[in-house]
Design brief:
single chain, about 475 residues, mainly alpha, two-stranded antiparallel sheet
């Protein structure tokens, strides 16, 4: 690759991805701050409960992100061919679908919240179970907010505007931390001669802070796309009336992606159930390990979204020649950034355990877990997760679905169960199963991108949109 071409591609990637990176860094930092507040005020049992319930939240987030992905890719393709009206219609239909799906989820969770928590935390200590039920109950109303907000973010990004979602996310997370501080801690203050005392609302306060922050984010993004957006702007509620043609195009990408994401997250819930039986220390270590990984995985998540937007726009304007090159380039840059982060964090594993107030037993589990993740991530995460984002943007969603589900359930769960439970390796065995999943994904997705077999899907999708 020539130097000028390298600079051009890097500039394009960073222009799209930098706001997403900043957004994800901010989310991760705020998440860690919330975890630290809960750990130091409520205790390890609360962290364990929050970690398990967050798995449900992540499953729903993955489902909603599938619809957002469908909207993002269709909007990006429309923008690639300069069809701005078509992009607006597709965006409105994506939001309509997200609202419908999220209300079904809301009613199901309201009815079945106790059996769901019993299924996940039935074998946990009683304090962990009750904390999980309280946190989940407070969080349930926020799922429709999350669905519509993430879909609106997605269509805004698909039009090339990644700054606004970043700004709103930062505001939302500041609200979350501020409310968390107010509601988790007990405090007292004197104002104009009045002495105000507030008790600690504990884990309910943590859940309420998160719900209210999502409401704040939803209000801000909807105000933006109705009144201020220069790209996707809705002028009337009529824009959201069901349009079968647009919804079919969105669901053509969203359904396979949703199945893949949901099966992936359900698989993670299954592994969480393995971990519940290992005790509170293992639950705590797994949750903190996941929090740290979320932070160090920021560049990969941002580049996944960035390459999806870039490739979607390339497909829209018929520039198939640069799709493979862009996918491979993004993957290599992602590997490089992961290497820098993991090398910097590797010597700090003991400090990380201390920062989260880990007990000696929990630290003994957490430290080797982090060390293994810091070795494997730079090699296998980026090719295993950035590359399929590029493939989805070409319309090759069924292939990514089949490989993702087979690898998750055939390797991560089965090998994680064998190593973690049958062989008695504990939590590290479950994480080894996750690493095996990464390796297989890397092999299959890299082969698919290099082979060019995605081209047929991209041509077909491009032609169908031109005909409509």
């Amino acid at each position: 690759m020539q130097r000028n071409e390298f600079r051009r591609m890097f500039k394009e990637l960073m222009l799209i991805s930098t706001p997403i990176i900043l957004e994800q860094v901010f989310i991760s930092i705020m998440g860690i701050v919330n975890q630290l507040m809960a750990a130091n005020v409520i205790g390890e049992y609360a962290i364990s409960a929050i970690g398990i319930i967050n798995s449900i939240s992540e499953t729903m987030f993955a489902l909603f992100m599938a619809l957002a992905t469908g909207g993002t890719i269709i909007v990006a393709q429309m923008y690639g061919r300069r069809d701005f009206e078509g992009a607006k219609k597709a965006g409105a239909q994506a939001i309509t679908l997200a609202l419908a799906v999220s209300f079904l989820v809301l009613f199901a969770f309201i009815i079945f919240r106790v059996p769901i928590v019993e299924a996940l935390l039935g074998d946990a200590e009683e304090a962990v179970f009750h904390a999980g039920l309280e946190f989940f109950t407070v969080l349930i109303p926020s799922f429709p907010m999350l669905a519509v907000m993430q879909t609106a973010f997605g269509i805004t990004r698909g039009s090339g505007n990644t700054k606004t979602p970043m700004q709103i996310t930062m505001i939302m997370n500041v609200v979350n931390v501020a409310l968390g501080f107010i509601l988790i801690f007990s405090w007292e203050i004197s104002i104009f001669g009045m002495h105000i005392i507030s008790p600690s609302y504990g884990i309910i306060g943590a859940g309420l802070a998160l719900t209210l922050s999502r409401l704040c984010g939803l209000v801000l993004i909807m105000l933006y796309i109705f009144f201020k957006s220069p790209t996707i702007r809705f002028k009337s509620i009529k824009d959201f009336m069901p349009d079968v043609k647009n919804q079919k195009a969105i669901l053509g990408i969203g359904i396979p992606t949703g199945i893949e994401n949901s099966m992936f997250q359900i698989g993670r819930l299954v592994t969480q159930i393995f971990i519940v039986g290992m005790g509170t220390s293992a639950l705590f270590a797994n949750n903190i390990g996941g929090t740290v990984f979320m932070f160090m995985g920021v560049p990969g998540m941002a580049f996944s979204q960035g390459v999806m937007i870039l490739v979607g726009q390339m497909v829209g304007r018929g520039d198939f020649e640069n799709v493979k090159k862009t996918g491979l380039f993004t993957m290599v840059v992602g590997c490089g950034m992961f290497a820098v982060i993991c090398i910097a964090l590797f010597p700090m594993t003991g400090l990380i355990a201390s920062a989260f107030n880990a007990s000696e037993e929990s630290a003994a589990i957490l430290i080797p877990l982090l060390q293994a993740a810091f070795i494997m991530t730079p090699i296998f995460w980026a090719p295993g997760f950035i590359t399929p984002a590029a493939l989805r943007a070409t319309g090759d969603v069924r292939y990514t679905m089949y490989v993702g589900i087979a690898s998750m359930w055939g390797l991560r769960i089965v090998s994680g169960y064998i190593m973690g439970i049958v062989l008695g390796w504990g939590l590290i065995g479950v994480w080894y199963g996750m690493f095996a999943d990464w390796i297989v994904r890397t092999v299959f997705f890299q082969h698919r991108l290099i082979s060019g077999k995605w081209m047929k899907k991209a041509l077909k999708q491009n032609q169908s949109q031109e005909d409509s």
